[in-house]
Each structure stands twice: as structure tokens, then as C-alpha cells.
Input
Amino acid sequence: MTATDTLALLPLLLLAGTAVAVMLGIAVKRSHELTAGLTLTGLAASFLSVCAVAPLAPRQVTSLLLIDRYALFYLGLIIASAAAVAVLSYQYFAKHDGQREELYLLLVLATLGCGVLVTSVHFASFLLGLEVLSVSLYGMVAYFTGRGQALEAGIKYLILASASAAFLLFGLALIYAGTGTMALSSLRDLSLGSSSLALLLPGIALSITGIGFKLGVVPFHLWTPDVYQGAPAPVSAFVATTSKTAVVALLLRYLAAETQQSPAVFLLFSIIAVASMFAGNLLALRQNNVKRILAYSSIAHFGYILVAFLAATAMAAGAVAFYLVAYTVTILTAFGVITVLSTSEADADDLEDYRGLFWQRPVLASVFTAALLSLAGIPATMGFVGKFYVLASGADASAWPLIIVLALTSVIGLFYYLRVVVALFSAVPERPSSLQGLGWSSAFVLGGLAVLLI
Amino acid sequence: MVLIWLMVVLLVAGILAWLTARWSAQLPRWISLVAIGLDLVLTAHIWAGRASGATNQWLDEVDWNWVPSFGIHFHLAIDGLSLLMLMLTFFLGIMAVLASWTEIREKIGFFHFNLMWVLAGIVGVFLAVDLFLFYFAWELMLVPMYFLIVIWGHERRVYAAVKFFLFTQCSGLLMLIAILALYFIHHQTTGAYTFEYSQLLGTQLSPGTELWIMLGFFVAFAVKLPVVPLHTWLPDAHTEAPTAGSVILAGLLLKTGGYGLLRFVIPLFPQAAHQFTPIALVLAAVGIVYGAVMAFSQTDLKRLVAYTSVSHLGFVLLGIFSWNPLALQGAVLTMICHGLSTGALFILVGGLQERMHTRDLGKMGGLWAVAPRLSGAALFFSMASLGLPGMGDFVGEFLVLLGSYKISVPITVVASLGILASTFYALRMMQRAFFGPSTNSWRLPDLTPREGLMMTVMILGLLWLGLYPQPVLNTFAPAMDNLQREVQMPAAALRTQP
Output
């Protein structure tokens, strides 16, 4: 490790340093403001260092990590979304009493895990990153130990994530046995026609199980609605955006080539994509819980991303990257609105909570409407450009069945987004108004996100 | 540049109307009225000055690079066809604002915001000659329309609005896929990435591909037009929308379907469209008769008027797929006249509902004695709708039938039966609502001066189109010559082939 190597690792080192600093800060003085401020400062420093180390890229640091432009792009996206989650958490937890500072510690650790994931080039760093992310998430999901739903979500996530990690580990072991190398790039250039096919194919299938679980695509999606519903709103936002972004980045880098080499793998991913698009959109239709709706919609959205991933054209990498940015911005906005409307007793996740919001809080409701229309892919929003990009890359690769399924299922999806929009714009119900003021910090973040959205 | 202003004026006026609503309820109405009036004047100005640019295909155009990496341009252009559609848009826009002058009492600012933006979207559709921009405008006009129905609509507004949105969005996405397919095939054959209409015109397609891509476009326009199996959103949306919404839906949104067929389907895919002709003709004839029969059996006055649209727009489809100049002229004329006559009927029904709080034909009756001027206007427009000579609808439908006679006699006979059926529903409507015994002894105010003015203008317009349609036909003539060349080519090719 030379000094330059260390410098290249600066974003990750800063994240780790922030975690330590936050922990020590909590030990010295328990203060919500101080902890949140420290977290944000650390994240901001790390984000700036991403820009700073860009000239060094690409650079392989030990055999575990690779810092290149691709990794740095996703690192930047991850850190930025984590920072937005931190601000939302500040607003959210300001309403709560009790010990709220540890959440920031977990948040920074989870972000670090994501960062390691996107830079990893080795099975060891891959698993390490994944576990750092998962273990922090257990704590974050079940942060409100007093709420039954949160505990249920936490336990569910814990058990399923551990099981899927075991699958992944076994799969990677089989691949190692077949190829004799632990470098992730072995996935990229292994030729499936070779003699060790009997080991490789099951290995890849098992790894896909582990990765599919993290993405929450069908048939590994069962945890998503419960976790989204049970976890505090900012944490749901984190699970939906940051953690999934990291896994998609990894998937795109190492398995995209695989889908073109092997018809079996291509078919497998096609089935996952089609099933996700249908299941996500159909299951969301009858939900009355906004967080569950967003959970099912995220299943569908990762189905859409898989379509671009399967196209694997020159355009596809750009399409996936753009779609992820658009999706992240949109979901953060949506959960931001939920966060603002949540009270200390419960999150604002029932559709009834949103009835007539437009006539009481026009700006907030407009922002939420923009987010929903963006998820639905209506023009003049970021989501539309993302969807256009994905459709274009699909058309470029002549994957007609996939993009027609995409178009049809996104119309199904439109129905439940419109249900929420209808609720926002319907007449104001007779009930005691318990609307909260909009904190300046959330206002700032939501405003920024909304501008990005359009 | 003036084309950009047409849209910008509406968009800015929409925002202003929304913002100023907190100070005065009248301000948004006047802002909207002035903005649309300004656009009408600008368009009339283009119309008056069109002789000078006769050599060019477009009377005026604006072309900016928008997203160069994809070859997307912000390209607006106007020819005779879009000019006529724009005149209709702004004329009916003014009528829509006037019609909601007293009907809309709540959330006035947001209402006018949506009204202005849906008009801006429609203007975009009529002007865009970049397919991406076209799709963008096509989708953009849906969202405000959706809000117009869902917030200010009648009893079943949510159902109607969602149905409307899903139908159009689904067909729109199929069109987007077709656009992308065309885009990539064009790139494969020429190496250039472009969404430009004039460049995509000559794209070489294999017959099978051409048919599929054509169908993608056709479905989107068929939902809007509407063609019969895809029409079910229309009666609901028209019935539940507020008056201004119904006027814009019937008068303008349906026309975007006909315009799309004329502008895109026929020139881009002449061969495939030609192959598709028999099916399109049958669909058109079915639509004409089905719409008329359904209209006859309605008890909801607004729903009745909605079904007449299905019937009238069947003539448009018939005219477009008859492949000769007479029928095409007829189709365009029918689109314009239908906008006027049906728009006026919706305004009258809206006026009645505002007074009586019902649209049920069974509860009406004997209204002539109570409100003679209103009833007289209704009589005029239902006569126009049933195709009485001397009014615009007659000219349009007559030309369509003349044209379609050359291509298929049986279809023409069936379509003529539709005209016969329209007599029944129009007379039944008059009979049930305005004549006969007054069952409920209604006491209704007659037309206000505002309504009277609107009706007079629309009556004069229809009479002008019916008695002297030549200026309109002349305006459309150069655009039609272009179209005609596209149409003749495959027709000649088909004749030599067998």
C-alpha cells in the first residue's frame, strides 16, 4: 500500500472515520443535533473526496478493491443518498424521545458497507461489504424496539438476509472450486462451455439468489413490504435506494457479460425481470398502505432495471445508471414526504392520512405528486427520462417481449400511483388536523430533490 | 419563433392564473381568456400571411437541438392542417373558459392552470414534428386533463378519470415502443440517430415490421379517436368531466387522434396502412352505427352527446382510410365541425345541469316553453349533428361518403345508415328534453348574455363552414397535396403488383 493507494481509498477511509467519530461523540455527549451534524459533515467530506480522487482512477488498491470511475460514480450516488437520508432522519427523530443517536452510527456503517460493495473486486471484499451493510440494517430496521411491526420487520430481515448470505457464500465457494480464483472478474470472463460447468452453473444460480434477495426481486421479494412498512420511514428510504444501488452496481459490472454468454443465465434473469414487473405492480394494486405501495413498486422498478441490464448494449450501462439516479431521487422525495407527515406515534403510511393533502399543504402534496408521477414515468419528470432510456436500450437490443411487458406492467403500475394522487386531491375529510410544520432542513432537501425531479 | 410563443403564452398564463387566484376569483378567468385570445390572434396572423411561404412544406417552424446525443430536436412546424387544428383549439379554448365562468366556483386558480396546460399540450401535439417531442406533448396533455376530471368532475369522476388515464397511457406506451423501433431501424439503415419526422419519412422497412410499427401508432390514435373496441373510456370521461373538460375532450383531444393518423400513420407507413385499409373501414362503419345506436338508448343527456362523438369520429376514420382527396377533405372538415357542434352541445348540457342539477332525460321535458333561446340553440346544434344541409357537419360527412363510395360501396351504405340513425337520436333528444309535457314544472333562467354570445358565435361558425367551406379547404390544400403524394405512391404500387 503506497501513499497514493491510501489517498485513493480516502472516501471509504473518511466514512470509516466518521463512524468512529460518531461513536466517540455519542460516548462523550448524547446530543441529537451534534450527532446528526457530525454525520453530515463526515458524509459531505467523503463526498468531496470522491470528487478529489477522481483523477487517480482507475487504481487497484490491493487485490480487494478497485477505485475506478464507475465505482466512484456509484460511490458518489450512495453517499449523496445517505446524506439525504441523514437529513430526513434528523427531522424524523426530532419528534421522538429516547436514544436516537445510534441510528446515525448504523447509517454511516451501512453506507461504508455499500461503498465497499461497489469498489470490491474480490469475493472477500464483496462479502465483507455485504455483511457490514446487512448487519447495520438489522439494527436500523428494528430501531424502534417498542413497535411490534418494527421488530417483526427486523427479525424477518435478519433471518432472510442471513439465509441468502449463506446461499451466496455457497455459490461463491462453488465458483471458486470451478475456477480456482476468488477475483470477481472471474465471473466476467469464465466461459460456460468449459468442463467445470457442473460447478459453475449452480454456483452462479446460488449467487443470484443472494443478490436477488438484496434487490428484492421476485421470487426473493417477500421481505420488502414488511420491512418497508415496519422500518422508520428514513430507514425504508435507505433500504430502497442506497443498499439496492450498491448491489445493482456490482451486478451490472460482473454479471452483465454473463447474460450474453449463457442463454441459461439470460433466461433466468428474464424470468426474474418479468416476474418482478408483474408481481410488483399487481400486488401493489390493492394496498392501502403507502409504504407497502412503494415497496411493491420498488420490486417492479428493479424489474425495469433488469430489462436494461439484460439488454447489455453500450447504452444499457448509461440507462441503468440514469434510472438508478432517477429512482433514488424519486424514492427519497416520496419517503421525505412520508417522513415530514409522520408523527411520534406512527408513520404516516395509511392512504387516509393523505386524503385532501393538496388543499391543506399544496407544496408538499405537489412534491409528492411529482414523485409519484416520476415513479409512473410521466413526461417532464426524471422517471420518464429513465424509463425512456431503459426502453431505448431494450429496443436497441431488440428485446421486444421484455419492453412490451415493461410497457404493459407500468400501465398497471400507473393505477396505484393514481390512487394515491386521487387521495391527495380529493376533498378534505372532517378530522382534527394534526399536520406538522415543515422543518427547514427537510424543506431544503425536499426542495432540492423536487427540482432534480423535474 | 411565433410557434414557441403559442405554447409559452399558455404555460405562463396557467401559472399566473394559479397564483393570482388568491386575490380575486375573476382574475384567473380573464388571464386565461386573454392568453387564448392572444394565441388565436397570432394563429390568425399566420393564416393571413401564409401565401408568402407557399413554396415551403411548412408555413413556419422552430428547430432547436434539445438532446443532441439522442438526436432529439425541439422542432415545431406548422402547415395547413395544423393551422386549422390550432384555430379550432384556441376557439374552443375560449369557449371552454367562458363555459366554466360560473360553473367552476371552487379552486378556480388550479382549474385554469390545468385548462391552460392541457391546451398547451394539445398545441404541442399539433405542432411537433420531432417524434420524441410529439410523444412528450402527447403524454403531457393527459395529466392536466386527468386533474380536470378528477377534481371538478361529477359523481363517478375518479373511476372515469383513472380509466381515461390508463387507456391513453397504455396505448401511448405502445406508440413509444413503435417510435423507438422506428428510430433504431432508421439508425440501422442510415447510421443516423434521429427522431425527425421529415427524415424518418423515407425509412425503408420490411412489410412485416412496417405493419407492427404502424399498429403501435394506430392503437394510440385509435384510443383517442376513438375506434370502437377501444372507445369505452370515452362515454365515462365525457360524462363525468366538467363542461370545459368535455368540450376539450370532445372538441380537441379526439382530434389529436385523427390528426395523428393523418400526420404520422399514413405518411410514415403508407404500405402497411394500405394493407390495413379493409379492417379500418370495417371498424369505422361499426363505430358509426354503434355510436348512433348507443346514443339512441341513453337516458343521460351528456352520455348521449358523448356517444354521438363515437359515431361522428367514425366518419373521420372512414375518410382517412378511403385514400382519396374528397374523403380526406371530408375527414378534416368533419373534425372541425364536430368540434363546434359537439362542443356547443356539451356547453348546453352543462348549462342545463347547472340550472337543473340533473342530466336525466326522464326528468326533463317541456323546456322549450321555459327557456326558448336555450332550446332553440339546442335544436340548431342537434340538427347540425344529424347532418342537416347548410351546416358544416353535412359537408364533411357528405364528402367522406362520396369518397368512400369509390372504394367500398357496402361500407358506404352502412355508414349512411349511421346518418339515418343520427336523425333518430337527435330528434329523440329534442323530443324528450325540450318538447312534450313539462313534468316537473321547471323554472329556469334562459340563456345569459354570455351564453348567448357563445352560442351565436358557434352557430355562425357552423353556418360558415356549411355554406362556404372553401377557405378552410384551401388552407388544407397544400398539406393535402403532400399527403396525396404519399397516398398515391403505394396505391399505384399495389395496382402494379398483382
Chain A has a mean pLDDT of 84.
